[in-house]
Amino acid sequence: MSAIANAATSRRSFLLGAAGVLATGRLPKASAQSSKTAREFTLTAAKGRTPLVRAQPETDVWCYDGIVPGPLIRARQGETIRIIVENRLGEDTTVHWHGIRLPLAMDGVPSISQPPIAPGQRFTYEFTPPDAGTFWYHPHADSLQQLGRGLAGAFIVEEPEPVAVDREVVWMLTDWRLTTEAQIASGFGNGMDAAMSGRVGNTVTLNGIVSDEEPVGAGERIRLRLINSSLARIMALRFQGHRPLIVAIDGQPCDPHEPDGGRVLLGPAMRIDVVLDMHGEPGRRYKVIDDFYDGLAYWLTELAYDDKPPLRAHILDPPLTLPRNPVPDPDLTTAQMHELRLQGGMMGGGGMAGMGGMSNAVWAINGRSMTGDGHAEMTPLLALTLGRSYVLTLRNDTAWWHPIHLHGHSFRVLSRNGRAVPSRQWADTVLVPPKQAVEVAFVADNPGDWMLHCHVTDHQVSGMMAVLRIA
Predict the structure, then answer these.
(1) Segment (H or E) for 194
(2) Ranges of CATH 2.60.40.420 domains, the chain
(3) How much is the pLDDT for 36?
(4) 458 vs 471: CA distance, rounded Å
(5) Which of the listed CATH numbers 3.40.980.10, 2.60.40.420, 2.70.70.10, 2.60.40.10 matches domain 23-158?
(6) Rounded to an integer, what is the distance from CA 185 to the centroid of its chain?
(7) pLDDT tens, 117-173?
(8) Which of these, 449, 429, 446, 451, lies nearest to 438 by C-alpha position?
(9) What is the pTM for the complete model shown?
(10) Which helix H or strand E contains 148, and what residues bound it?
(11) Cα torsion for 194, 341, 110, 431, to the nearest 10°?
(12) E-assigned strands of 167-270?
């Protein structure tokens, strides 16, 4: 298992987490108004303060509309929406709508998709989400600091017809590196983080607060939307006494299945929808434990049952199956093959050609490093033909985990180390373990220069980033 710098994460040794608080799992929704052509939302990026940990000083953060996480945006599949973003920070920003298949001009990559939003300026995003599912939004400018200081929010696209569950809950999980005064520690972009596992913190919040318990009722069926908005922390969640059923990955429905070993694995930027049938005993509490890192397990929260009789006597059957989204199926018989080798990092080796003489390149893809957040001079790593199917082999030559994200598309995950992946899984961010290979396939149906990068943000900004040109 990868070594983790400054990651004291047992529940008792959480730097600031001992107090805990009640968190309901409900997020404030963004206000919307209808126009003749679109539902309209507004978001303001600015500095603020928020109580991440009870009985500690409020934390200075950067946030949308004064809250962490930002307002929950809800839209309907196929509904046109308009989002006006105002920048009240002291530096440029953008917003990337992570996982949504949208036009390049709305993708939020500075100088490639759009001009950066300067301080005091606004930018209007308008698009029609083609897929229902769990997505999120975050900056793609000064990503390490802006995301690491709190700029992120959940984006839910609802199915045309209601899904048969008793309740839906969104958990936005965020990892912070805090001081003993509950302030965000300095040192973004230091060399040790960049060359190893990234900026893993010491405090994990659930919907913006260290969670002591999540109230549930016996017998209910919950659709739990999990979002990992951390800079670097990988999570493996065990639901004590329960059997989560995965029904969607990165917003795309999959064949319902239980996770390997009962642990829901979430790399940074990944989302997983699970169905939880609450068959615990009324009045009891069951821990949700993250034990991804060896020797650093901690409990994230507890499922706290009320004392009421069960809502129903038996678990619902059959399990929930979500309707498919209109993602085009790649033609594997004619697909063109490409191998992308992930290289660099401490103990990783691998040559890096760098870009523009950058000296802060630590990582590379196929020997080429592209640093930062994206810029107009980025030469495409691959030129793909619009409408053609492709298979990419993501081969991790390093000693570290990499969640690889492709903008503007969803891809089908075919295999891991040559072994077929079950349950017909789609994703836009796939976690590639050290010294392993993952095959993914997609139809290059969205024209433009699209980012492909590691979503351990330290890895992205220090070289593990590329452009795929589709034309």
Answers:
(1) helix 191-195
(2) 23-158, 167-305, 336-470
(3) 61
(4) 30
(5) 2.60.40.420
(6) 22
(7) 999 999 999 999 999 999 999 999 999 999 999 999 999 999 999 899 999 999 999
(8) 429
(9) 0.93
(10) helix 143-148
(11) -70
(12) 167-176, 203-206, 211-216, 221-228, 235-239, 245-249, 252-257, 263-266
Are 339 and 391 in contact by the 8 Å Cβ rule? The answer is no
Residue 345 near residue 330, CB atoms below 8 Å: no
pLDDT at 233 over 50: yes
Main-chain dihedrals φ then ψ at residue 144, nearest 5 degrees: -55, -50
Tell me the pLDDT band of 354, cut-offs 50, 70 and 90. very low
Q: Which two tokens stand for residue 192?
A: 């040790």
> What torsion, rounded to 10 degrees, do the Cα atoms 284, 286, 287, 292 define?
170
CA distance 293 to 194: 18
Give CA torsion, residues 99, 104, 108, 110, to 10 deg.
140
What is the residue type of 58? E
**Residue 336, helix vs strand vs coil:** strand
Helix (H/G/I), strand (E/B), else coil: 448: strand
Shortest CA distance to 325 belongs to which of 223, 407, 403, 412?
A: 412
Residue 306 per-residue DSSP state: -
Q: How confident is the model at residue 87 (pLDDT cuts 50, 70, 90)?
A: very high
Give CA–CA dist 63/25, Å, rounded. 19
User: In terms of CATH architecture, what is 167-305?
Assistant: Sandwich (2.60)
Quote the Cα angle for 99-104-107, to 5°: 45
**What pLDDT does residue 17 have?**
38
380-434 pLDDT per residue, tens: 999 999 999 999 999 999 999 999 999 999 999 999 999 999 889 999 999 999 9
According to CATH, the topology of domain 336-470 is Immunoglobulin-like (2.60.40)
The pLDDT tens digits of the residues spanning 265-298 come to 999 999 999 999 999 999 999 999 999 999 999 9
